[in-house]
Amino acid sequence: MASNVWIGNFNQMIFEEFSSNIVHPKLENNILAAMKAETLPLVIWGAGSMSYSVRKVLKKNGIPVTACWIDHAKSTDVDGIPVMPIDEIVDKYGTVNVVFGHSKYELADTIANKEGIHKCFCLVNVCYEQWNHLSYKFVRDHIKDYYETYQHLEDELSRECMVAFLNCKMTEDFHYLLPVCREKAGYFENPFFEIGESECLADIGAYDGDTIREFLFAKKRYNKIYAIEPESENFNQLKQYVDREKLHNIQLFQCGCWNSNTVLCFHEDKESSGFDSSGKENLKVYKLDDLLSGNDVTIIKINFLNGVCETLDGAANIIKKQMPKLVIMVGFDEWGLIKIPKKVKELNSNYKISLRYASAMPARLILFAY
Fold first, then answer.
1. φ, ψ (nearest 5 deg) of residue 85
2. pLDDT recorded at residue 29
3. Is the pLDDT of residue 233 over 70?
4. Largest CA distance in the chain
C-alpha cells in the first residue's frame, strides 16, 4: 500500500489513487474514421439544434448523411436532408447505421438491436467544434493539473464524475458516464444549494431565455435577473420571450463579458460563436463588476467555451465580496477542468466545488461553486 506522504498540498496516496483510475486506451479510438469506412447509409438521430454540430463535423470529414431520424417529425427535411421515422427510413434505405451527437447517448444501447440498425456511433467529442478526442498523452502531461482540481472537489461522486469525463473523452466511450449520472442535477436543482425567493441571477450566455425558463420553473419569485447575450438572433429571441411572458425585473444586455471593458472580434455561429481574431463582428465586452455597477448578485451562470476565466476575472469584486453561487459548464474541452476550478479558488478560496452531469454527455458537466 502506498504511504500517505504529503508534499505541500500534494497527497501521494490520493494522487496514486486518482492516477490509477485514468484508463490507458490500448488503441486511440477514431469514431469518425470508423464511420467513414462504413458503406451502409448513415442516419442522424434527431434534427434539431443538437444535431447541428453533428452535421457540421460529418460534412467537414466527407461523411454523407442519408436521413435524420425523428419519430414524430414536424418537417420533412433539415438542410436538405430528409427527416422521417426509423421504420420509414429502413423501408426506404434498408439496414442503416445511426449516429448520436451530444445528446441521449444512452439510447444507443437501447436501439442497437432494433431491426434494420447495424451499428450505433456516439460522437462524444463534438460540441463547440471540439472534434478531436482527448489524448492520453495530454492527460499524462497535465496529470498534476487535473489532480489539483481533483483535490478541490468536495465529494466522492464529484471525483467520480471527473474521472469519468477524462476516460470518456479519451476513449470516446459514453459508457463511462452512465454510472455517475445517478443524480438529477441542473443549474437550479442540485444537491448543493437551494434557490430562494429573493435571488439575483446573472445569466451570462442567456441564449434565447432557456436558462431563465429553468430558473423560473425552480422558483417563481426572484429579485432581479440580468440576462447577457451577445448573438443578435439569440438576443432577439430572448427579448421576445421576456416581452411575451411579461416578465418583470429583468435587464437585458446585448454584449459580452470579459476581464476589461473593450471591443473584441466576435464571430457568430449557430453553435460555436466566440471571440476570435478572424471574427467579422466587433463586440463590446464589459467586466461584470462594471456592467452591474455594484448591484447584488446571488447566482452567476456561465455556459460557453471561450472566455470563462476572463469573465470570472471581470467579476472578481462580486465573487470576492458577495460570493454568489456559481454554475459553470466545464466539459467542453480538455482545459475546462484545469483552468476554471483553479480560477474560482484564486478569486475566493472559501468556495466549495462539486461536479455533476446535467445529462450523460461530457459537454453537460456542471461545476457548482457554493
1. -65, 160
2. 63
3. yes
4. 65
Alpha carbons 81 and 55: distance in angstroms, whole number: 10
Mean pLDDT of all residues in the chain? 91
pLDDT at 325: 98
For 294-328, give one letter per residue: b (16+ CB within 10 A) or e. Answer: eeebbbbbbbbbebbbbbbbbbbebbeebbbbbbb
- pLDDT, tens digit, 9 for 90 and up, residues 298-328: 999 999 999 999 999 999 999 999 999 999 9
pTM of the model: 0.91
Q: Which is nearest to 242 in space by CA: 215, 203, 209?
A: 209
* Paired sense of beta strands 250-253 and 224-228, if any: parallel
Angle between helices 143-152 and 336-347 (to 10 degrees): 50
Rounded Cα–Cα distance for residues 24 and 106 (Å): 23
What is the number of other CB atoms lying within 10 angstroms of the CB of residue 182? 11
